[in-house]
């Protein structure tokens, strides 16, 4: 069994309030959950309007599957014009 995690720090340039921020993050989290079959949670910077940190977790029987799902999640977050990726930390065990 392999467990992979991805910690992604985001900049949300269009957010002008916590409500704007929450709308963007909820949309991103749902898309990652649905398309990548991964668990997603907001883990840091919860009170800043234009910054957020999302954690993505995946469990699978082989390393390639975990790696592929984490790559797909990172590509999905990177492709969204509402968020810019500032930093990514990846770990597979």
Question: Could you walk me through the main structural features you see in this protein, from its secondary elements to its overall organization?
Answer:
This protein is of the alpha+beta class. Helix content is 39%, strand content 38%. The protein has 2 helices and 4 strands. The chain has a 4-stranded antiparallel sheet, covered by helices on one side. The protein is elongated, with a radius of gyration of 13 Å. The model has no long low-confidence stretch (mean pLDDT 94).
Structural class: alpha+beta
Count of extended strands = 4
Number of helical stretches of at least 4 residues: 2
Q: Extract low-pLDDT stretches.
A: none
Strand order of the largest sheet: 2-3-1-4
Quick one: overall form?
A: elongated
List the helices and strands in order.
Answer: EHEEHE
Beta-strand share of residues: 35-45%
Radius of gyration, taken over Cα atoms and rounded to an integer in Å: 13 Å
Q: Tell me about the largest β-sheet.
A: 4 strands, antiparallel
The averaged pLDDT comes out at: 94
Query: What percentage of residues falls in helices of 4 or more residues?
Result: 25-40%
Distance between the termini: 9 Å
Care to give the gist of this entry?
This protein is an alpha+beta fold and 93 residues long.
